[in-house]
Amino acid sequence: MSSFNDFLSQVSKLSNMPLPGQEAQLSMAAMERLDELKLVAKKSKDAKQAATMMLLYPKNDESYFVLIERMISTGKHSGQIAFPGGRAEKGDKDFEYTALRETEEEIGIPISLQKVITAGTPLYIPPSNFMVRPYLGYLDHSPIFKLQATEVKSVIEVPLQQLMDEANVSSQILSTSYLSKVEVPCFLLQEQIVWGATAMMLSEFKAMFKQAGL
User: Sign (positive/negative) of CA torsion 82, 154, 85, 136?
Assistant: First the structure.
């Protein structure tokens, strides 16, 4: 089991590593979405823009990252498990800032404390017509979360070791607002089913962690 110091020792390597790309992401995509996702260049020209943050931090000397449970709403991603993140705003200087700002707004981690390592591969989400740009970052300390009450129901603190354990890769039959009773690949993390775009982004970062020897 790797410690948080082990993770820190690989930050430079992770920041300079070529991205595994869409191939790593598609390993966690529902079969019904594969063809649509592969047409990303055609689909994404008029997409709305968003950014997310996979934020790692130390807890009991281990590496953890945070996911959020979204509030139930009328949106297509209501109630899902996701990274902190959201839509780009006109005042954002770039997508990295969007990820930092949204992480501060949703879970209360100040922008000044978040250290960005690298950007992941942008991912197009057909149901909501969003192009999401994932970022990988870390904190030097265990965070105190302050949730945005209108957006976030709870935070889920996940040991990085759970993500790296192949026993936690599974599949589930799910129904959503846009798919009915389909089998989707997923991660089982802290008794939560993590699937869809979040699982696809996690899959790419997991491939990077593997390459770094974590």
Answer: negative
**Cβ 51 vs Cβ 168: under 8 Å:** no
Taking the C-alpha atoms of residue 146 and residue 109, their distance in angstroms, rounded to an integer, is 8
> Rounded to whole angstroms, what are the CA distances from 5 to 118, 142, 168?
18, 13, 24
φ and ψ of 150, to 5 deg: -80, -15
> Each residue of 70-122: pLDDT tens digit?
886 544 444 589 999 999 999 999 999 999 999 999 999 999 999 999 999 99
Which two tokens mark 51? 């950014």
Q: Which two tokens stand for residue 119?
A: 């950007």
pLDDT in tens, 169-190: 998 876 665 566 778 899 999 9
Q: What pTM did the predictor assign?
A: 0.90
Beta strands 182-189 and 85-87 are: unpaired
Residue 72 burial (C-beta neighbours within 10 Å; 0-12, 13-18, 19+): exposed
Rounded distance, CA 67 to CA 89, Å? 22
